[in-house]
Amino acid sequence: MLFALALIACTSDNTPTSAPPSSSAPPESTTTAVATTTAPPTTLSPLTPIEGCPDPGPLAAPDPRRPTYTATAAIDVAGSTVTGSVTVAFVPDLATNELVFRLWPNAPVLAASGVHEEVGSVTSGGSALAVDQPDDTTVHVSLPSMLEPGESITVTVPYTLTIPGGSADRVAHEGDTMRLGSFLPLLAWEPGVGWATDPATSVHGESATSPVADYDVAISVPLGYDVLGSGVRGDDGHWRATAVRDVGYSVGHFVLVEDDVEGVHITLGVEQSVGEDPARYMSLIVDSFRNYPARLGAYPWPTYTAAVMPGFHGGIEFPTHVMHGAGSTTRSIVHEVAHQWFYSLVGNDQGRDPWLDEGLASYVEFVQVASLAGHLGDRIPSDAAGRAGEAMTYWEHHQASYYAGVYAQAANAVARLGSVDEVDCALRQYVARNAFRIATPADLFAALSIVFPDAADRLAPYGLHP
Protein backbone atom coordinates (compact mmCIF):
# COMPACT_ATOMS: atom_id res chain seq x y z
CA MET A 1 0.00 0.00 0.00
CA LEU A 2 1.45 3.35 -1.00
CA PHE A 3 0.50 6.43 0.96
CA ALA A 4 0.93 9.91 -0.49
CA LEU A 5 1.95 12.14 2.41
CA ALA A 6 1.42 15.89 2.22
CA LEU A 7 0.81 18.95 4.37
CA ILE A 8 -2.11 21.04 3.12
CA ALA A 9 -1.48 24.77 2.95
CA CYS A 10 -4.18 26.38 0.84
CA THR A 11 -4.36 29.92 -0.37
CA SER A 12 -7.82 30.72 0.11
CA ASP A 13 -10.38 8.09 21.85
CA ASN A 14 -10.35 6.00 22.87
CA THR A 15 -14.06 5.15 23.01
CA PRO A 16 -15.00 3.13 26.10
CA THR A 17 -16.29 -0.33 25.33
CA SER A 18 -19.58 0.55 27.00
CA ALA A 19 -20.20 3.54 24.74
CA PRO A 20 -21.04 3.70 21.06
CA PRO A 21 -18.22 4.45 18.65
CA SER A 22 -20.23 6.99 16.66
CA SER A 23 -21.77 10.35 17.31
CA SER A 24 -24.74 8.71 19.00
CA ALA A 25 -22.66 8.78 22.16
CA PRO A 26 -19.18 10.18 21.66
CA PRO A 27 -18.05 9.28 25.23
CA GLU A 28 -16.68 7.19 23.15
CA SER A 29 -15.78 34.45 -1.90
CA THR A 30 -17.93 32.40 -3.74
CA THR A 31 -20.07 32.14 -6.85
CA THR A 32 -23.03 29.85 -7.18
CA ALA A 33 -22.96 27.07 -9.74
CA VAL A 34 -25.72 24.76 -10.87
CA ALA A 35 -25.68 21.46 -9.01
CA THR A 36 -25.18 18.34 -11.02
CA THR A 37 -28.00 15.85 -11.44
CA THR A 38 -26.03 12.89 -12.73
CA ALA A 39 -26.35 9.52 -11.06
CA PRO A 40 -23.45 8.12 -9.02
CA PRO A 41 -21.01 6.32 -11.32
CA THR A 42 -21.04 2.92 -9.65
CA THR A 43 -23.96 0.58 -9.03
CA LEU A 44 -22.20 -2.78 -9.25
CA SER A 45 -19.59 -4.24 -6.93
CA PRO A 46 -17.51 -7.43 -6.76
CA LEU A 47 -19.74 -9.28 -4.30
CA THR A 48 -18.12 -12.36 -2.87
CA PRO A 49 -20.11 -15.39 -4.06
CA ILE A 50 -22.18 -17.01 -1.31
CA GLU A 51 -23.49 -20.45 -2.14
CA GLY A 52 -27.26 -20.40 -2.51
CA CYS A 53 -27.52 -16.62 -2.15
CA PRO A 54 -29.74 -14.97 -4.77
CA ASP A 55 -28.09 -12.34 -6.93
CA PRO A 56 -29.36 -9.01 -5.55
CA GLY A 57 -28.72 -7.25 -8.86
CA PRO A 58 -27.47 -3.68 -9.13
CA LEU A 59 -28.27 -0.96 -6.64
CA ALA A 60 -31.61 0.76 -7.11
CA ALA A 61 -31.09 4.08 -8.89
CA PRO A 62 -31.56 7.37 -7.05
CA ASP A 63 -34.69 9.40 -7.76
CA PRO A 64 -33.99 11.46 -10.90
CA ARG A 65 -36.14 14.25 -9.41
CA ARG A 66 -34.25 14.39 -6.13
CA PRO A 67 -33.64 17.83 -4.57
CA THR A 68 -30.65 19.97 -5.47
CA TYR A 69 -28.87 22.24 -3.03
CA THR A 70 -26.72 25.12 -4.29
CA ALA A 71 -25.09 26.67 -1.25
CA THR A 72 -22.41 29.06 -0.09
CA ALA A 73 -20.46 28.87 3.16
CA ALA A 74 -18.08 31.66 4.19
CA ILE A 75 -16.15 30.24 7.13
CA ASP A 76 -14.57 32.64 9.63
CA VAL A 77 -12.67 30.50 12.08
CA ALA A 78 -11.36 33.36 14.21
CA GLY A 79 -14.80 34.98 14.26
CA SER A 80 -16.54 31.69 15.11
CA THR A 81 -19.12 32.09 12.34
CA VAL A 82 -20.28 30.59 9.07
CA THR A 83 -22.54 32.64 6.82
CA GLY A 84 -24.14 31.87 3.50
CA SER A 85 -27.28 30.80 1.73
CA VAL A 86 -28.90 27.66 0.41
CA THR A 87 -30.96 27.55 -2.77
CA VAL A 88 -33.02 24.37 -2.90
CA ALA A 89 -34.97 22.99 -5.85
CA PHE A 90 -37.60 20.53 -4.63
CA VAL A 91 -40.11 18.26 -6.40
CA PRO A 92 -42.45 16.41 -4.00
CA ASP A 93 -44.10 13.06 -4.68
CA LEU A 94 -47.05 14.06 -2.46
CA ALA A 95 -49.02 17.30 -2.37
CA THR A 96 -47.80 19.82 0.19
CA ASN A 97 -48.54 23.44 1.06
CA GLU A 98 -45.29 23.98 2.96
CA LEU A 99 -41.60 23.17 3.13
CA VAL A 100 -39.97 22.02 6.34
CA PHE A 101 -36.30 22.69 6.98
CA ARG A 102 -34.42 21.35 10.00
CA LEU A 103 -31.70 23.41 11.69
CA TRP A 104 -29.74 20.63 13.36
CA PRO A 105 -27.07 22.96 14.86
CA ASN A 106 -29.84 24.05 17.26
CA ALA A 107 -30.32 20.52 18.64
CA PRO A 108 -30.01 20.31 22.45
CA VAL A 109 -26.46 18.92 22.70
CA LEU A 110 -25.09 21.63 20.42
CA ALA A 111 -27.24 24.43 21.80
CA ALA A 112 -25.89 23.64 25.26
CA SER A 113 -22.40 24.51 24.00
CA GLY A 114 -23.59 27.83 22.56
CA VAL A 115 -23.96 26.79 18.93
CA HIS A 116 -26.81 28.63 17.21
CA GLU A 117 -28.14 28.91 13.66
CA GLU A 118 -30.56 31.53 12.37
CA VAL A 119 -32.21 31.86 8.97
CA GLY A 120 -33.10 35.08 7.22
CA SER A 121 -35.93 35.90 4.87
CA VAL A 122 -36.89 32.85 2.80
CA THR A 123 -37.66 33.76 -0.79
CA SER A 124 -38.93 32.12 -3.98
CA GLY A 125 -38.81 33.91 -7.32
CA GLY A 126 -37.87 37.12 -5.52
CA SER A 127 -40.90 37.03 -3.20
CA ALA A 128 -40.68 36.51 0.56
CA LEU A 129 -42.50 33.50 1.98
CA ALA A 130 -44.17 33.28 5.39
CA VAL A 131 -42.09 31.40 7.95
CA ASP A 132 -43.04 29.82 11.25
CA GLN A 133 -40.52 28.34 13.67
CA PRO A 134 -42.34 26.26 16.32
CA ASP A 135 -39.06 25.11 17.86
CA ASP A 136 -35.37 25.86 17.48
CA THR A 137 -34.71 23.06 15.00
CA THR A 138 -37.81 23.29 12.78
CA VAL A 139 -38.68 25.93 10.17
CA HIS A 140 -42.03 25.75 8.37
CA VAL A 141 -42.15 27.74 5.12
CA SER A 142 -45.67 28.38 3.84
CA LEU A 143 -46.12 28.13 0.06
CA PRO A 144 -48.36 30.55 -1.85
CA SER A 145 -50.36 27.62 -3.25
CA MET A 146 -50.52 23.85 -2.99
CA LEU A 147 -47.47 22.18 -4.53
CA GLU A 148 -48.76 19.12 -6.36
CA PRO A 149 -46.80 15.89 -6.94
CA GLY A 150 -44.29 16.39 -9.73
CA GLU A 151 -44.37 20.20 -9.54
CA SER A 152 -41.20 22.02 -8.58
CA ILE A 153 -40.32 24.98 -6.42
CA THR A 154 -37.02 26.73 -5.76
CA VAL A 155 -36.42 28.64 -2.54
CA THR A 156 -33.45 30.46 -1.10
CA VAL A 157 -32.64 30.36 2.62
CA PRO A 158 -29.90 32.63 4.02
CA TYR A 159 -28.33 31.42 7.26
CA THR A 160 -25.88 32.51 9.95
CA LEU A 161 -24.18 29.92 12.14
CA THR A 162 -22.41 30.91 15.36
CA ILE A 163 -19.95 28.43 16.90
CA PRO A 164 -18.42 29.99 20.01
CA GLY A 165 -16.44 26.97 21.17
CA GLY A 166 -16.02 23.26 21.41
CA SER A 167 -18.63 20.56 21.70
CA ALA A 168 -18.61 16.78 21.63
CA ASP A 169 -20.81 16.75 18.55
CA ARG A 170 -20.92 17.59 14.86
CA VAL A 171 -20.64 21.38 14.97
CA ALA A 172 -17.69 22.74 16.95
CA HIS A 173 -14.91 25.32 17.04
CA GLU A 174 -11.96 23.63 18.69
CA GLY A 175 -8.69 25.58 18.80
CA ASP A 176 -7.81 26.42 15.21
CA THR A 177 -10.30 23.95 13.71
CA MET A 178 -14.00 23.69 12.92
CA ARG A 179 -16.33 20.74 12.49
CA LEU A 180 -19.33 21.47 10.30
CA GLY A 181 -21.78 18.62 10.02
CA SER A 182 -25.50 18.84 9.16
CA PHE A 183 -25.04 22.61 9.29
CA LEU A 184 -27.03 23.64 6.21
CA PRO A 185 -30.81 24.05 6.54
CA LEU A 186 -31.97 20.56 5.52
CA LEU A 187 -35.23 19.47 3.88
CA ALA A 188 -36.92 16.87 6.07
CA TRP A 189 -38.94 15.06 3.40
CA GLU A 190 -39.62 11.33 3.48
CA PRO A 191 -40.87 10.24 0.02
CA GLY A 192 -44.24 8.56 0.22
CA VAL A 193 -44.78 9.85 3.77
CA GLY A 194 -44.25 13.61 3.93
CA TRP A 195 -42.43 15.86 6.35
CA ALA A 196 -40.43 14.26 9.16
CA THR A 197 -40.64 16.37 12.29
CA ASP A 198 -39.20 14.00 14.89
CA PRO A 199 -38.13 16.00 17.95
CA ALA A 200 -34.44 16.74 18.22
CA THR A 201 -32.76 14.45 20.70
CA SER A 202 -30.60 15.32 23.71
CA VAL A 203 -28.83 11.97 23.29
CA HIS A 204 -25.46 12.11 21.55
CA GLY A 205 -27.07 10.82 18.39
CA GLU A 206 -29.22 11.70 15.43
CA SER A 207 -32.92 12.24 14.80
CA ALA A 208 -32.64 13.44 11.21
CA THR A 209 -34.47 12.25 8.11
CA SER A 210 -33.59 13.54 4.67
CA PRO A 211 -33.81 12.31 1.08
CA VAL A 212 -30.75 11.99 -1.13
CA ALA A 213 -29.98 15.17 -3.04
CA ASP A 214 -27.28 16.75 -5.19
CA TYR A 215 -25.11 19.33 -3.47
CA ASP A 216 -22.93 22.12 -4.83
CA VAL A 217 -21.38 23.93 -1.86
CA ALA A 218 -19.04 26.85 -2.53
CA ILE A 219 -16.81 27.04 0.52
CA SER A 220 -14.45 29.92 1.33
CA VAL A 221 -11.95 29.67 4.18
CA PRO A 222 -9.31 32.06 5.54
CA LEU A 223 -5.80 31.99 4.13
CA GLY A 224 -3.87 28.95 5.37
CA TYR A 225 -6.85 26.71 6.15
CA ASP A 226 -8.20 23.82 4.17
CA VAL A 227 -11.24 21.61 4.13
CA LEU A 228 -12.04 17.91 3.92
CA GLY A 229 -15.62 16.93 3.29
CA SER A 230 -18.44 15.28 1.41
CA GLY A 231 -18.11 14.90 -2.34
CA VAL A 232 -15.42 16.06 -4.72
CA ARG A 233 -13.64 19.40 -4.40
CA GLY A 234 -13.26 21.33 -7.65
CA ASP A 235 -10.56 23.84 -8.52
CA ASP A 236 -13.18 26.56 -8.07
CA GLY A 237 -13.54 25.79 -4.36
CA HIS A 238 -16.90 24.08 -4.79
CA TRP A 239 -17.61 20.73 -3.16
CA ARG A 240 -20.00 18.69 -5.30
CA ALA A 241 -21.72 15.54 -4.12
CA THR A 242 -24.29 13.49 -6.01
CA ALA A 243 -27.19 11.60 -4.42
CA VAL A 244 -26.20 12.11 -0.77
CA ARG A 245 -28.62 12.87 2.07
CA ASP A 246 -26.43 15.31 4.00
CA VAL A 247 -22.96 16.83 3.94
CA GLY A 248 -20.20 17.45 6.46
CA TYR A 249 -16.89 19.35 6.34
CA SER A 250 -13.81 19.49 8.58
CA VAL A 251 -11.72 22.67 8.63
CA GLY A 252 -8.13 22.86 9.84
CA HIS A 253 -4.53 22.16 8.84
CA PHE A 254 -4.17 18.57 7.72
CA VAL A 255 -1.44 16.03 7.13
CA LEU A 256 -2.80 13.82 4.36
CA VAL A 257 -2.54 10.24 3.24
CA GLU A 258 -4.32 9.05 0.10
CA ASP A 259 -5.01 5.73 -1.56
CA ASP A 260 -7.29 4.17 -4.18
CA VAL A 261 -9.33 1.06 -3.43
CA GLU A 262 -11.71 -0.56 -5.92
CA GLY A 263 -12.16 2.72 -7.80
CA VAL A 264 -12.70 4.83 -4.68
CA HIS A 265 -10.21 7.61 -3.89
CA ILE A 266 -9.68 7.69 -0.13
CA THR A 267 -8.23 10.75 1.60
CA LEU A 268 -7.45 10.85 5.30
CA GLY A 269 -6.37 14.04 7.03
CA VAL A 270 -4.91 14.21 10.53
CA GLU A 271 -5.16 17.70 12.00
CA GLN A 272 -1.70 18.99 12.92
CA SER A 273 -2.71 19.64 16.53
CA VAL A 274 -3.56 15.94 16.96
CA GLY A 275 -0.15 14.62 15.96
CA GLU A 276 -1.19 11.00 15.37
CA ASP A 277 0.22 8.64 12.76
CA PRO A 278 -2.27 8.61 9.88
CA ALA A 279 -1.15 5.17 8.68
CA ARG A 280 -3.19 3.28 11.30
CA TYR A 281 -6.41 5.04 10.36
CA MET A 282 -5.78 4.60 6.65
CA SER A 283 -4.98 0.92 6.98
CA LEU A 284 -8.28 0.25 8.79
CA ILE A 285 -10.28 2.33 6.31
CA VAL A 286 -8.68 0.62 3.31
CA ASP A 287 -9.34 -2.83 4.77
CA SER A 288 -12.97 -1.86 5.31
CA PHE A 289 -13.31 -0.69 1.72
CA ARG A 290 -11.86 -3.99 0.53
CA ASN A 291 -14.34 -6.01 2.58
CA TYR A 292 -17.62 -4.11 2.80
CA PRO A 293 -18.46 -3.87 -0.92
CA ALA A 294 -17.71 -7.58 -1.26
CA ARG A 295 -20.08 -8.33 1.61
CA LEU A 296 -22.86 -5.77 1.11
CA GLY A 297 -22.80 -4.20 -2.36
CA ALA A 298 -21.30 -1.23 -4.14
CA TYR A 299 -20.02 1.95 -2.59
CA PRO A 300 -21.41 4.17 -5.35
CA TRP A 301 -19.48 7.41 -4.88
CA PRO A 302 -15.98 8.17 -6.22
CA THR A 303 -14.46 9.52 -2.99
CA TYR A 304 -14.31 8.98 0.74
CA THR A 305 -12.64 11.43 3.09
CA ALA A 306 -11.99 11.30 6.82
CA ALA A 307 -10.55 13.83 9.24
CA VAL A 308 -8.96 13.13 12.62
CA MET A 309 -9.86 16.12 14.76
CA PRO A 310 -9.32 17.36 18.34
CA GLY A 311 -11.98 17.95 20.95
CA PHE A 312 -14.13 14.81 20.95
CA HIS A 313 -14.07 11.02 21.04
CA GLY A 314 -15.47 8.40 18.68
CA GLY A 315 -16.69 9.26 15.21
CA ILE A 316 -19.37 11.25 13.44
CA GLU A 317 -20.59 9.98 10.08
CA PHE A 318 -21.74 11.85 6.98
CA PRO A 319 -22.15 10.64 3.42
CA THR A 320 -18.63 10.19 1.97
CA HIS A 321 -17.02 12.00 4.96
CA VAL A 322 -16.32 11.02 8.57
CA MET A 323 -14.96 13.00 11.50
CA HIS A 324 -12.83 10.89 13.86
CA GLY A 325 -11.92 11.99 17.36
CA ALA A 326 -8.25 11.89 18.27
CA GLY A 327 -7.27 8.46 19.57
CA SER A 328 -10.21 6.70 17.94
CA THR A 329 -10.38 2.98 18.55
CA THR A 330 -10.20 0.39 15.79
CA ARG A 331 -13.87 -0.47 16.18
CA SER A 332 -14.91 3.16 15.97
CA ILE A 333 -13.01 3.69 12.71
CA VAL A 334 -14.51 0.68 10.94
CA HIS A 335 -17.99 1.37 12.40
CA GLU A 336 -18.08 4.77 10.74
CA VAL A 337 -17.15 3.29 7.37
CA ALA A 338 -20.06 0.85 7.77
CA HIS A 339 -22.39 3.84 8.03
CA GLN A 340 -21.67 4.57 4.37
CA TRP A 341 -24.00 1.62 3.68
CA PHE A 342 -26.39 2.00 6.61
CA TYR A 343 -27.54 5.63 6.89
CA SER A 344 -25.70 7.09 3.90
CA LEU A 345 -26.65 4.70 1.07
CA VAL A 346 -29.70 3.09 2.68
CA GLY A 347 -31.26 5.84 4.74
CA ASN A 348 -33.73 5.68 7.60
CA ASP A 349 -35.70 7.93 9.89
CA GLN A 350 -33.06 8.16 12.60
CA GLY A 351 -35.51 9.54 15.14
CA ARG A 352 -38.08 6.80 14.59
CA ASP A 353 -35.84 3.81 13.75
CA PRO A 354 -32.30 4.39 15.07
CA TRP A 355 -31.59 0.65 15.08
CA LEU A 356 -31.73 0.43 11.30
CA ASP A 357 -28.45 2.31 10.90
CA GLU A 358 -26.74 1.89 14.27
CA GLY A 359 -27.59 -1.79 14.73
CA LEU A 360 -26.63 -2.82 11.21
CA ALA A 361 -23.45 -0.72 11.23
CA SER A 362 -22.52 -2.37 14.52
CA TYR A 363 -23.12 -5.84 13.06
CA VAL A 364 -20.81 -5.01 10.13
CA GLU A 365 -18.24 -3.64 12.58
CA PHE A 366 -18.37 -6.72 14.83
CA VAL A 367 -17.68 -9.00 11.88
CA GLN A 368 -14.90 -6.76 10.57
CA VAL A 369 -12.96 -6.71 13.85
CA ALA A 370 -13.81 -10.33 14.75
CA SER A 371 -15.67 -9.36 17.93
CA LEU A 372 -19.05 -10.86 17.00
CA ALA A 373 -18.74 -13.94 19.23
CA GLY A 374 -17.74 -11.82 22.20
CA HIS A 375 -20.62 -9.39 21.72
CA LEU A 376 -23.18 -12.19 21.65
CA GLY A 377 -22.61 -12.41 25.40
CA ASP A 378 -23.24 -8.70 26.02
CA ARG A 379 -25.39 -7.94 29.03
CA ILE A 380 -28.38 -5.82 28.05
CA PRO A 381 -29.78 -3.62 30.86
CA SER A 382 -33.34 -4.31 31.93
CA ASP A 383 -34.64 -1.00 30.60
CA ALA A 384 -33.22 -1.85 27.15
CA ALA A 385 -33.81 -5.60 26.86
CA GLY A 386 -36.52 -6.30 24.30
CA ARG A 387 -36.62 -2.64 23.26
CA ALA A 388 -34.02 -2.46 20.46
CA GLY A 389 -36.60 -1.02 18.07
CA GLU A 390 -37.63 1.93 20.24
CA ALA A 391 -37.50 5.49 18.89
CA MET A 392 -35.14 8.18 20.14
CA THR A 393 -38.00 9.55 22.25
CA TYR A 394 -37.62 6.44 24.42
CA TRP A 395 -33.83 6.63 24.64
CA GLU A 396 -34.10 10.27 25.76
CA HIS A 397 -35.05 8.84 29.15
CA HIS A 398 -32.69 5.83 29.06
CA GLN A 399 -29.49 7.35 27.72
CA ALA A 400 -27.16 5.17 29.77
CA SER A 401 -28.62 2.08 28.07
CA TYR A 402 -28.72 3.46 24.53
CA TYR A 403 -25.58 1.78 23.22
CA ALA A 404 -26.32 -1.62 24.70
CA GLY A 405 -30.01 -1.40 23.77
CA VAL A 406 -29.68 -0.28 20.16
CA TYR A 407 -26.15 -0.83 18.85
CA ALA A 408 -25.29 -4.10 20.55
CA GLN A 409 -28.73 -5.64 21.01
CA ALA A 410 -29.89 -5.06 17.43
CA ALA A 411 -26.57 -6.25 15.99
CA ASN A 412 -26.61 -9.39 18.11
CA ALA A 413 -30.25 -10.11 17.24
CA VAL A 414 -29.50 -10.00 13.52
CA ALA A 415 -26.33 -12.06 14.00
CA ARG A 416 -28.27 -14.82 15.77
CA LEU A 417 -30.39 -15.39 12.66
CA GLY A 418 -27.64 -17.45 11.05
CA SER A 419 -24.07 -17.55 9.83
CA VAL A 420 -22.20 -14.45 8.71
CA ASP A 421 -22.60 -15.53 5.07
CA GLU A 422 -26.35 -15.97 5.51
CA VAL A 423 -26.82 -12.60 7.22
CA ASP A 424 -24.61 -10.88 4.64
CA CYS A 425 -26.71 -12.50 1.91
CA ALA A 426 -29.86 -10.96 3.38
CA LEU A 427 -28.21 -7.56 3.89
CA ARG A 428 -27.01 -7.36 0.29
CA GLN A 429 -30.65 -7.84 -0.81
CA TYR A 430 -31.66 -5.00 1.53
CA VAL A 431 -28.92 -2.69 0.24
CA ALA A 432 -29.63 -3.32 -3.45
CA ARG A 433 -33.40 -2.86 -3.11
CA ASN A 434 -33.28 0.22 -0.87
CA ALA A 435 -30.22 2.08 -2.12
CA PHE A 436 -30.71 5.87 -2.08
CA ARG A 437 -34.04 5.49 -0.28
CA ILE A 438 -35.34 5.98 3.26
CA ALA A 439 -35.95 2.43 4.39
CA THR A 440 -38.32 1.21 7.08
CA PRO A 441 -38.18 -1.85 9.33
CA ALA A 442 -40.64 -3.52 6.95
CA ASP A 443 -38.09 -3.12 4.14
CA LEU A 444 -35.39 -4.81 6.19
CA PHE A 445 -37.67 -7.66 7.25
CA ALA A 446 -38.67 -8.21 3.61
CA ALA A 447 -35.00 -8.71 2.74
CA LEU A 448 -34.24 -10.84 5.81
CA SER A 449 -37.18 -13.10 5.00
CA ILE A 450 -35.59 -14.08 1.69
CA VAL A 451 -32.98 -15.97 3.69
CA PHE A 452 -34.76 -16.35 7.03
CA PRO A 453 -38.52 -16.85 6.49
CA ASP A 454 -39.13 -16.78 10.25
CA ALA A 455 -37.12 -13.57 10.82
CA ALA A 456 -40.09 -11.64 12.22
CA ASP A 457 -40.80 -14.27 14.88
CA ARG A 458 -37.16 -14.65 15.82
CA LEU A 459 -36.45 -10.93 16.16
CA ALA A 460 -39.65 -10.03 18.00
CA PRO A 461 -38.22 -10.88 21.46
CA TYR A 462 -35.64 -8.13 20.93
CA GLY A 463 -38.34 -5.56 20.20
CA LEU A 464 -37.66 -5.59 16.45
CA HIS A 465 -40.77 -5.69 14.29
CA PRO A 466 -41.65 -4.99 10.60
Reconstruct the topology from this structure.
Layout: E1 6-7, E2 68-76, E3 81-90, E4 96-102, H1 108-111, E5 116-119, E6 123-124, E7 127-128, E8 131-135, E9 138-147, E10 153-162, E11 171-174, E12 177-181, E13 186-187, E14 189-190, E15 194-195, E16 213-220, E17 226-229, E18 232-233, E19 238-244, E20 248-252, E21 254-261, E22 264-271, H2 278-296, E23 303-309, E24 315-318, E25 321-325, H3 330-338, E26 347-348, H4 354-368, H5 372-375, H6 392-395, H7 402-415, H8 420-434, E27 438-439, H9 441-451, H10 455-459
Parallel strand pairs: 2-16, 22-23, 23-25, 26-27
Antiparallel strand pairs: 1-21, 2-3, 3-10, 4-9, 4-13, 5-10, 6-7, 8-9, 11-12, 12-20, 14-15, 16-19, 17-20, 18-19, 21-22, 24-25
Helix pairs in contact: 2-3, 3-4, 4-7, 8-9
Relevant terms:
466 residues, alpha+beta, Neutral Protease, domain 2, six-stranded mixed β-sheet, 30% strand, globular
